[in-house]
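One-letter codes give the sequence; the fold follows as tokens. An example follows:
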Amino acid sequence: MKTFFPMRRGEARVLVVLVAFSIFSFLPVWRSTEFAGMAMFGWLMAALMVLSPALALYVFLRKP
């Protein structure tokens, strides 16, 4: 008996990209680097919060 639903190739790619971007965002070097008066960590977290749901919705709603 399978306990997981099958994942389409595009969904798997989005998952890998988001996990890689999350790992990249949490690197310690971004906490001390600043851009426009704010730490790069804040910019990367904002991008992660905005882009990840948008990208996931685009991939999930796209016709196979």
About this structure: The longest strand covers residues 34-35. The beta strands are 34-35, 38-39. The radius of gyration is 15 Å.
